[in-house]
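Ticket 4471: requesting a sanity check on a complex prediction with zinc ion. Repro inputs:
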Amino acid sequence: MLKIKSFVFSPIQENTYLLYNEFNQCAIIDPGCYFDAEKDELVGFIQKSGLQPQMLLNTHCHLDHVFGNKFIADTYGLTLQLHEKEKAVLQFAPTSGLMYNMPFDNYTGSFLTLKEGDSIQLGDDELKVIEAPGHSPGHICFYCASQNFIISGDVLFYRSIGRTDLPGGNHQTLLSSIRQKLFVLPDETLVYSGHGPATTIGDEKRENPFL
Ligand SMILES: [Zn+2]
Ligand SMILES: [Zn+2]
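Returned structure tokens:
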């Protein structure tokens, strides 16, 4: 059984997620911690809860989702897991950091690549990888069928959708991803987005003005 802890980090207000089980095995998804106080907050929670980080996952590699990759990888000895097509996005992230006036040290280690249908195992719990491009070319979501939730990154938000004006973005592709990959999940599926509050698939099918 997975528990979910979220943090809101950086001036871009990105949601960082920790998933952890009853054995305190922990996955860190999109560590967007930018300031030292945010890194302390994240590590402090992990320490206080006795968690053992076992994997570092990125839904996609826009700067706000990768600020803390290097810090987390160095602190816990983890290898970054991402979609093949996000490697180029990650490489560009420090450049956009300079454009946003938020310089940072990028992750430089090796990679484990994830693709559609891959199963990520954290103890007894399983996350399925769902490819959902459009906001970013190699954007993936992490779906937990047994507990009815999805970590959706910047694909689908509460009453909104991801922007598609960044390099590699495509509006039609994003709409197809949402309709064909997310809206086929059960209505009660909880959606934990990269920004803003959580929602459900059913609520967004009914209320999302972009779809
Ligand atoms: Zn993004
Ligand atoms: Zn974002």
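Notes from triage: Helices lie at 36-48, 63-66, 69-76, 87-99, 171-182, 201-207. Leaving this open until the requester confirms.
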